[in-house]
Amino acid sequence: MTAEKPTMIEFKDVHKYYGDYHALRGITGTIKAGEFFSLLGPSGCGKTTLLRTIAGFEGIDQGVIMIDGKNMANVAANVRPTNMVFQSYAIFPHMSVGENVGFGLRKEPGTREDKAKAVAEALEMVGLKGYGLRAAHALSGGQRQRVALARALILKPKVLLLDEPLSALDKKMREHMQVELIKLQRQVGITFILVTHDQEEALVMSDRIAVMFDGEIAQLADPETLYRRPATRKVADFIGTMNFIPATIVSEIGDEVKPGGGSAPRNADAALRRPEGPGAGNRRHHRRGDLLRRHDLL
């Protein structure tokens, strides 16, 4: 029997205001150590704000955020056990790849040789062995993203925060980097928290997902549960294209309900969900399993 993973991050009734705007509304939940966790929702739902409160870039007005059992109240961003990969990657164009990756080591203890070794190891980890002397401005989008990952991981954080890091990539590169991120997370074994508005990306990559609307978590569950048993109509509508059939329940017998015009099982797995078109099947949901098996990650 597999032991349950310990909690790495815990939110307790977290609220955040920007003036009169209530950006986070009583966020409560946990993220496990070594978990690939996604914050999923439409633009303006509060997912990036929540990520920034974990990083310490934004304070909270009420509640508690715990990281590895410690209250993060008044703990500055630079001393938290987290690091972030930004949507823009924030690569320094006037520096080499190696200088970018080793930037965070400048004030860390250790010899120049030790730091050079750490940079080389970080570059090899993300598939950029031998790129240390290359000019950062000469890299492709996928390579720049890898440099940003190496720079974040070289300081060995307990939590890596990813703010829509794949949004600037084309579809083929995006799918390739999804696999690479899963592999990397398995390799380093730390907690990854991904912010995305892409439902398929979240379903494919995540161990668990928090679906957010209007500053609240509407449902927090694994991809299978989210797809097959959405907690609300709004979650079901956001996760995939669904057919919603208005009906009035006229009777209930055991596990079946009888809407006007016929009967249907109460169990959401058995009926009342139809995928996106003829023969589509559970395409989005099953792509995760297919992808993980194809790359020996399942």
- Distance N to C terminus: 18 Å
Q: How many extended strands?
A: 13
Please state roughly what percent of the residues sit in beta strands, choosing from under 5%, 5-15%, 15-25%, 25-35%, 35-45% or over 45%: 25-35%
Largest sheet: 6 strands, mixed
Which structural category do the helix and sheet elements fall into? alpha/beta
User: Overall pLDDT, averaged?
Assistant: 84
> How would you describe the shape?
globular
Number of helices: 9
| Unreliable stretches covering 5 or more consecutive residues | 268-282
Alpha carbon gyration radius: 22 Å
Q: Give me the side-by-side strand order of the main sheet.
A: 6-7-8-3-9-10
Fraction of residues in helix: 25-40%
The topology string of helices and strands comes to EEEHEEEHHHEHEHEEHHEEEH
Oligomer: single chain
How would you explain this protein's 3D organization?
The structure is a single chain. The protein has 298 residues and is α/β, with parallel strands linked by helices. The protein is 31% helix and 25% strand. The chain has 9 helices and 13 strands. The chain has helices spanning 47-55, 97-101, 112-125, 141-153, 171-188, 199-205, 223-228, 233-239, 283-294; strands spanning 7-18, 21-32, 36-40, 62-67, 70-71, 82-85, 159-163, 191-196, 208-213, 216-221, 249-253, 256-259, 264-265. The strands form 3 sheets. The protein has a 6-stranded mixed beta sheet with strand order 6-7-8-3-9-10, with helices on both faces. The protein has a 4-stranded antiparallel beta sheet with strand order 2-1-4-5, with helices on one face. A hairpin with a 2-residue loop joins strand 9 (208-213) and strand 10. Helix 3 packs across helix 4. The longest helix is centred in the middle third of the chain and has 18 residues, at 171-188. The protein is globular. It starts with 6 loop residues before the first strand and ends with a helix.
